[in-house]
Design goal:
Length: about 375
Amino acid sequence: MTVSPLARPQRFESLLIVRLGAMGDIIHTLPAATALRQAFPHATLGWLVEERWAELLCTLRYPRSGPRSPQRPLVDRVHSVNTAEWRRALFSFNTWQQIATGLSQLRGIRYDAVIDFQGAVRSALLGRWSGSPILYGDAQPRENAASMFYTRKVLTTCNGRHVVQQALALAVAVISSGTATSAAPTPAAELPAEFPVDPDAERKIRELTSDAKDYVILNPGAGWGAKMWPAERYGQVAKELARYGFSSLVNYGPGEEALAAAVEAVSNGTARKISCSISELIALTRRARLFIGGDTGPMHLAAALKIPVVGIFGPTNPVRNGPFATQSVVLRNASSKTDHRRRGEPDQGLLEITAEEVVAASRKLLQNRADQSHVAKASRG
């Protein structure tokens, strides 16, 4: 890790994290945020995020600032922006009023330092707009132009190949340059990812899953078509898992209902589709025995909650983006090449992964968890 320019240790009483989205990227940043919280336990910790993902940090009906609680367990303040909506109505008076109000509130906190975990021009600009004199960022950000706005540049790629480890390297640079309580953060794999607990969502999911005590989550959707394993194969997996006493719940998001319906149709009634808010998905995932899906936000949520994962990978690299620090089996055909172009058709290597392979991986993880549960009960007895 290198930091430029070098500076004497500074006393940070307030820090702002900038990680606007998307779901998986925010989840990958949580261990770094936890490290900052541990190192600066008395500092005010803020987070600037897109409004659509704010539920990952704070339940909807809970205040966005003030004392932390299970409804907002990690940060003291959640600041939100809505850049997509703003771009759609850029010349609207209401849009400019929202921008002015939100950014004025952000600037009014006077954060001692900002950490841009996004590495984009818009996130760097928002970090500078906060008025903080110090802005940390990756020396090799996702968008090269973003580095022009950083006052402290950190080389993170040599500190681990997974994005969770890269984010933690940026946090370590902040900890090293500040008067932290602890200068040696916990390893990334051991840092907990704290999610809000929404009592209403917990109650709803408890009711919805009352007849599905041992359920597996199937997630056929993905950010783009090249990452999507065929929905019909998820239905075949559900049929097979039902033979071993496991029901399947098919999670789907906006625009994915047809995918979920296709899984249901092939499953012969062994899978049931379910659409959730973010808070409900957190509650649903906490209770699951297993998660099966591709490189998506819900998969990273399951991994962060320590739910076993069968990851079905095609064009994205599981070394960098795979399930982190949980029991997992990653399936990726040797013919798949890393490619982040948002192609609509499924990756050909992805299509080589069979339903039988996914069932075998699922049974292995389910058996491992059952064995661990048996050992834990025996030790308590």
